[in-house]
Design brief:
alpha/beta; four-stranded mixed sheet; 15% strand
């Protein structure tokens, strides 16, 4: 499977999706946005894929929106363009059956992908690239990674749901610090804030990311991962009682699955698990 601006590879139940404009630090264009959505949804539909890694080619993860496009936008006369008209043209909802509307927006659809997405932040991660990593399920950073929102330095706003997701990850004060100042932070500060789960040496970065992904692909139930992802993101919109009631129904359904039987059997028999996702 090939795309113009992303690389797509499946191996050992792991789909690796790589933003592939290294000469532009993987800056985002409309083509890249389209290719990324198509690659992630293809991985979601592939029964052989259990986990997705998202990373960038070359020395960076993503430098944000391509500056050529931003320059053209800044020099355009917007006086006769209705605000609602721009939104309708540029912020269309994705067609994702069974996914709540919150997770079908232009750059907020990652939680609507049923399989875990690991953000492997291998370098610069700024602006719209910063937004992309926010919506990954788990984020690992290379020691060379740098993070920044950049929006305030461009006279813009907290884009594409970042005002909703960022405070949930690192708290309101830290979120406003990064949004207001647009300052760059290194991987260690990102770890202290809770923006990333782990900082990994650059020379072993992808090996360690794949080691973790491999455990998710082979050591735990793929059905459990899908159900847990749905539960956690839905719970962001639920009361405790609603989340508990929904989980109780999910538990009852789990008892009827092959993965539940295998989960008990492999532990009792003291052998490696052989989950099928069914």
């Amino acid at each position: 499977m090939s795309y113009e601006t992303v690389l797509y590879e499946v191996s050992d139940h792991i789909a690796t999706v790589t933003l592939n404009r290294p000469d532009r630090l993987n800056a985002i264009t409309r083509q890249l946005q389209e290719d990324l959505f198509n690659a992630l949804t293809a991985a979601d539909k592939d029964d052989d894929v259990r986990v997705i890694i998202l990373t960038g080619a070359g020395r960076g993860f993503c430098a944000g929106a391509d500056m050529k496009g931003l320059d053209e936008t800044s020099n355009r006369d917007w006086s006769d363009v209705p605000d609602e008209g721009w939104v309708k043209e540029n912020c269309k909802d994705h067609d994702m059956e069974g996914v709540r509307i919150d997770f079908r927006k232009t750059n907020t659809y990652f939680p609507g992908i049923s399989k875990p997405i690991i953000g492997a932040i291998n370098g610069a991660c700024v602006g719209l690239g910063f937004v992309l990593q926010l919506f990954c399920d788990i984020r690992f950073a290379s020691e060379t990674a740098r993070f920044g929102t950049a929006f305030a330095q461009r006279g813009l706003i907290a884009e594409h749901g970042s005002s909703w997701m960022l405070p949930r990850l690192i708290g309101v004060s830290n979120a406003l610090d990064l949004l207001y100042s647009a300052r760059l932070i290194n991987a260690d500060e990102a770890l202290r804030m809770g923006l990333v789960s782990r900082v990994i040496p650059a020379d072993s970065f992808m090996d360690e990311v794949r080691e973790y992904a491999n455990w998710l692909a082979t050591g735990v139930s793929p059905r459990s991962l899908k159900e847990m992802k749905r539960e956690v993101f839905n719970a962001l919109f639920q009361t405790l009682a609603e989340a508990t009631d929904a989980a109780n129904l999910d538990m009852a359904r789990s008892f009827k699955t092959n993965d539940f039987k295998e989960g008990v059997a492999h532990f009792i028999e003291k052998r490696a698990a052989n989950f099928t996702g069914s």
